[in-house]
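Note to self: user wants both folds in one dump. Writing first protein now.
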Amino acid sequence: MTNQKNNYSSKLLACLVAVYIIWGSTYLGMKIATKVVPPFMLSALRFLLAGSIMLTIGHLKEKVWPTRQQLISACLIGISLIGIGNTVTALGVHHMPSGLVALLVAAMPAWILGFDWAFFSKQRPSTLTLLGIAVGFIGLFLLFNPFTNHEDRSYPLWPVIVVVAGNISWALGTLFVRRLPMPTQLTSTGIQMLAGGVFALLCSFIFEPGAINTVPHITSEGIAAYFYLVFIGSLIGFSSYSWLSKNAPPRVTATYAYVNPVVALFLGWLIGNEALTPMVGLAAGIVIGGVVLMTLGRKHS
């Protein structure tokens, strides 16, 4: 029993660190990789390769093929999490500073809590949680306030709406994954990646005509970012998140949302030459503070 508990604790810690650091770095990775290859095509190539590898590993290790219902469920979750959620994040970082997109994604717990309250558990969040949601959105409003003239803003605001839509899709996928019949862990992750990759490829054909022709022109920097996204970001990062979403308390899994933007902001500044203005720092602190309050509120509700 003690060994099982220790193994669980070790795996929990390893998965949390992976999601904290790796996912925080993927924002900059997507920024670099989409300099030549458009975002939908990048996501398609990323997850088709990662999904093929993961499904092969899953089949060899688990030796259990999913039922038809499990296969459909995994495909739906894959489209929700990856095909929509992750792909529009790539679109966002292509047009905006990667650290700011990470702050938008940091509001994820608010969407998860809100939809869980409205459609699933029907349990009203605690006062502390509601306060955290309000504080987080105040921070985002300060950051992206469309009613003020930001002379130093060098990016459009429309990707904000797209990334928020992706957040909503990811939140719904996260809530449904515990309520649908799913395949075994590795096989499920592989199917989700493949389904998301196919969906992203279809989106690329529709919204990015000629995108496939950009692939031969990708730079060595872009190739390195692509393989980092496939092998580190997808195979290790997404697998860690999948394990956490099924085995860890939701309040623990949710903590990645306020670590990722710190990592993304730092790397965007250090490597991506993204500006860290006082307003960005203030808004980031408010958003992350709001997410911390949400997490504490869930713990005490």
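First done. Writing the second protein, which came from a different request thread.
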Amino acid sequence: MTSVTNQVPARFLVITGLSGTGKSTVLKALEDLHYYAVDNLPVELLPSFVQLPLRHVGESFQAALVIDVRAHDFVEQFSPTFLRLLRQGYNLELLFLEASDETLIRRFSQTRRKHPLSGASGSVIDGLSSERKLLAPVKELANQVIDTSRFTVHALRQEIFNLYSQGGQLEPLQLNFITFGYKYGIPPEADLVMDVRFLDNPYFDDNLRHLDGRDPRVVDFVFQGHESEEFLKKFKDLLEFLIPAYIREGKTRLTVALGCTGGHHRSVAVAEWLARNISTPGVRSTLRHRDIAME
């Protein structure tokens, strides 16, 4: 096979390691960093995979590939295949994940999964012992080894961002405001629900009933008085407190539903104001008035 040195430097990050160490979490984090993500790739397909993107994708292409003991003949095939591709000039890196026996036994107990090498005995510790011995030569090839024993899921995700973002931009948090009428039901996609039926209701004013919460006259009516002003301030403060915490937790989408009786007046006015005034950096907002056209 022809060397690819000096050709398009597509990047391939191979993820392997002990079962239960968080390979799926790492793969999802890399996908958020715009890596093309593939789980449980057979070893024999690795050479074909690294060749295809070089012909069809630009130089920014990055792929994260999980290959581990689930793959047929992994132990026999992986090291020689990986080394051969490196010699041919492909830009491959190897990330190896490990953890303590105590941590892994606890994780398998919590998920009630069987270790892939536990055999007829079903013993997790026997499976781990076999796996450590089999993967020792593979670990020696790793560019990066991470012991995930001390990491929560969210901390491991942050560690991957720190190691592999290289200035790349993560998807910003998508903040979705939805207004609705309680008579039509709460939106099932809502993460947070705020009932604004305590605010003054323009429906009972004949001059405002036919309008909606986007009209300045309705807005003035809904927001009259100290109570509405205090509510807007406090709810805005709450959202601006929660959003950075959700981002740290790894959330990429937050849907805030605001409801009033019919979804025409109060909820619409509040959502419009929030969409204009939420000022957390790195957050994109959308606004949808679900029931504004309902009779």
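Dump finished. Worth passing along: The chain has two domains: 11-164, 173-289.
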